[in-house]
Write a sequence for this structure.
């Protein structure tokens, strides 16, 4: 079907008809990747926390680093799936976690010179990131709680790497176990919710996050034409 150009259209320009009535947007449901992401945070935090608390010897650092390394691949997978599920906050958080586990594993396994100091600065930079993320994730209470308990750990880890203070290392290890507990609870609660299609253990969603779970399909598809992947630019 062709259309005549408008009277004021520049010569040589061709205008397509309105194609909205013929446009279809297909959505593909997926299983939530967040339990995998939170369980990965928990397991890696236990290993690194035990190393900081002295449960493992200093000579065991390389073994710990190699055990933590798979956390990079798992959380990267979670990030990719979260982007596909249109959750930019979860995807950004899990993708950044993946990068942090990779950096930690490479530095600790290689025994690179200046590793503790470099990781100290890295963790302080991560602290700034965590503060910004915590400011926007409060409606997603599970993510928010993991960030709230992670930020003091990043602060303690960063300062201990720069100063070498043993008490800060011990504090970071204890906070790492607390992060593991919170992440495990979040993962288990989300798995139960997904299996039973209702909230079993309290997660504390609010605002848009609660509406997204409890609202009907019309709520999920609202403003879909403006989402990344549909609109022309990011």
């Amino acid at each position: 079907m062709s259309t005549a150009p408008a009277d004021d259209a520049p010569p040589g320009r061709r205008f397509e008809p309105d194609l909205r009535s013929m446009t279809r947007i297909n959505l593909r449901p997926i299983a939530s990747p967040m339990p995998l992401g939170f369980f990965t945070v928990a397991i890696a935090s236990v290993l690194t926390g035990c190393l900081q608390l002295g449960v493992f010897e200093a000579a065991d650092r390389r073994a710990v680093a190699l055990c933590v390394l798979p956390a990079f691949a798992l959380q990267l997978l979670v990030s990719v799936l979260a982007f596909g599920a249109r959750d930019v906050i979860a995807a950004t958080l899990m993708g950044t976690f993946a990068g942090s586990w990779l950096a930690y594993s490479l530095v600790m396994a290689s025994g690179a010179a200046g590793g503790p100091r470099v990781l100290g600065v890295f963790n302080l930079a991560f602290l700034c990131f965590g503060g910004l993320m915590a400011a926007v994730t409060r409606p997603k209470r599970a993510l928010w709680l993991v960030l709230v308990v992670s930020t003091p750990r990043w602060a303690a880890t960063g300062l201990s790497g720069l100063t070498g203070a043993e008490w800060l290392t011990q504090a970071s290890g204890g906070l790492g176990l607390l992060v593991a507990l919170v992440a495990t609870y979040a993962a288990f609660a989300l798995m139960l919710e997904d299996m039973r299609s209702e909230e079993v253990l309290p997660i504390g969603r609010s605002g848009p996050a609660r509406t997204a779970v409890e609202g009907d399909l019309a709520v999920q598809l609202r403003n879909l034409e403006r989402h990344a992947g549909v609109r022309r630019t990011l």
